Every structure is written in structure tokens, then in C-alpha cells.
Amino acid sequence: MTTVLPDAAPANWVDRHAPRALRPWLKLGRLDRPTGIWLLMLPGWQGIALADAMDGRAPDPWLLGAFFVGAALMRAAGCAYNDIVDRDIDAKVARTAMRPVASGRIGLKGAWAFILACSLASLAILLTFNLLAVVLGVASLGLVAFYPFMKRITWWPQAWLGLTFNWGALLGFAAASGGVPLPGLVAVALTRGWTIAAPDALFGSLHLAALLLYASGVFWTLGYDTIYAVQDLEDDALVGVKSSARRLGERAPAAVFAFYIVALALAGLSALTAELGWVFWPFFGLYAVSLLVQPGRLKLDDPKRALALFRMNTRAGLLLFLAVTVGYWHGAL
Q1: Which of 91, 109, 166, 257 lies at a CB distance of 3.0 to 4.6 Å from 217, suitable for a disulfide?
Q2: What is the pLDDT of residue 318?
């Protein structure tokens, strides 16, 4: 009998098409639920688009593809790591009890091997970027490592997830901002030394606009993951897991609205700082609408609606990416 995780679509491709032996491994990496891949990838795409827009060009398709694959791999590794840490809690929560590690379908050694394989493949992609991007990519591991423990020590694990999931905005901007790819940088260092060019020409660079975009993403994630946490309000209370949804209670919809307002303000400031063209703003308006309709529809006693609202954020994030992408155009009205 096929077991479908409650927050996976009943017709997901894993349960419909994947070989039975592979299904636990694909579910370990949450490949039956692609929303998380999009939400991890889109900040990276936005960062790439921002760096390229500031240089007056559209995003590099190869770089977008690399971030898509890297996000899928790192999200899979992160989910497996989270399942290892949370296996005892997951077994007590209805929505997560059938996850492969919690249910015993995959052992700890197998899960760790899965993490290692995904991480090595992701590292191979990361090493094609410039040094600044590589350093940022490695630094993100600290955020990933501590995330599963946040729900035990703070009411705001969603804020930590925001710091983690949106790190790609900085990484993407750095990867697209120039700089010699790491293999070439090593060759330059060995043959010509470090003084042949300005540091940013070698390593890439960051910009205030990228930092504002990152901060915007943190509040965006704080909003949508609070919505996501509504699904587990009762179970989290029973097992003692903390979340922003539990902490806020009936104030959650109003708080999500406030988080999204801050996210929009910071994204707008990022665009102004980057001096994006006027075409950015109509798409940004659509992004704003896609966020601000969510809090009014959120009901604490309706977990299915919470999941549907959460999933809306893939389209919302894509709208912001499109806004930044066309923002390089400065044509006259």
C-alpha cells in the first residue's frame, strides 16, 4: 500500500511514477514536495537577477540552472539532516510520522550517506563560482546545522529559517557579480600572484542592494513559514515544539501581514538602491498583491487552507524574480 505524506500532493510524481525501492529516498529529500526547492532556489535567482540587472543585462541562464540543481541538492540534504535530528519528534506528529527516518524505512547510516552524496554533488557546483560565493556557500552550513534545534530553544525558528533559506540571495549576487571562478583563481594565484587586479575583480563583490534583498527575504520567509506552522499547532503543543504560529496564536494573521509589509518595504528599497528601471514596479505590485492576500485568508483551524496559502509563495517569489529580471531595462515610458 502506498503511503502519501499528508502535506504532499496526492498525485505527486514520486508515488505515481518512481520505482517503489526509490520512493523512501526521494521522500527523504522531499522530492515529492517541490515547493521547498522553489522557496530555497528563488532567493538565489533573485540575487543573480539583481547583480545582472545592475550591470544592465538579463540573468545568466547557466547560473540560474546551476542554482536550481544546487538548491534541489541542498534542500534534499537539509531535509534528511532535519529528519535525523527530529526523528523522535516526527514520530509523534501526525503530519510527519511517516517520514522515512521516523518510520524506520531508512536507517541513520543510510540517511547520513544520502546527505553526504547530495552535499558532495552540491559542492562540485559551488566550486565553479568565485571565491566570495564559495565562502558564502560554506558559511551557510552553520545556519543549516543549527536550524533543527531552533524549535527547541526559541519561539521563532521561522526567523532562523528565513536567515537560512534566503542566504542564496547573497550567494547568487556574489556569483553573478564577477570575479574569477575558483579554479581559475587558483591558477591566477600560482602563475601571476594576487596583485594583477582589484580584489572585486578576483573575488566578486556584494552591494547594499543585495543585503536589503536578503533582509526582505528573511521577513518573507518569516511570514510564509508562520502560515506553514499553522498545520501543526495542536501536535506541536502536545510534543512541546515551539513555533511562531504557537507564540502568536490568534494574532498570527495580523503578524504575517506585518512581516509581509516589512518584506515589501525592504525589497522596494533594494530596487531603489540598485536603481532598477520602471518596469520593475508593475511586477513588484503583483508580488505585493500575492503576499497581502494571504493573511486575510489564513484560518488557524483550517490547516489545508494554510498549506494552500503557503504554496502560493512559489508564485510570489517568482514574481519578484521577474520584477528584478526586467528591472535592468531603463527605457522611456
Answers
A1: 166
A2: 98
Give the confidence band of 198 by pLDDT, cuts at 50, 70, 90: low
Domains assigned to the chain: 20-326 (1.10.357.140)
At CB < 8 A and 24+ separation, what contacts does 211-214 make?
A: 211/170, 212/266, 212/267, 212/269, 212/270, 212/273, 213/43, 213/46, 213/47, 213/50, 213/169, 213/173, 213/266, 213/267, 213/270, 214/43, 214/47, 214/166, 214/167, 214/169, 214/170
Only one residue has cell 564559495, namely: 134
By C-alpha distance, which of 36, 32, 31 is closest to 10?
A: 32
3-state class of 130 per DSSP?
strand
Confidence of residue 141 (pLDDT cuts 50, 70, 90): very high
Provide the pLDDT for residue 219.
Answer: 98
Q: What's the pLDDT tens digit per position in 267-301?
A: 999 999 999 999 999 999 999 999 999 999 999 99
| Type of residue at 194 | W
Please report, in angstroms and rounded to a whole number, the separation of the first and last CA atoms in the chain: 60
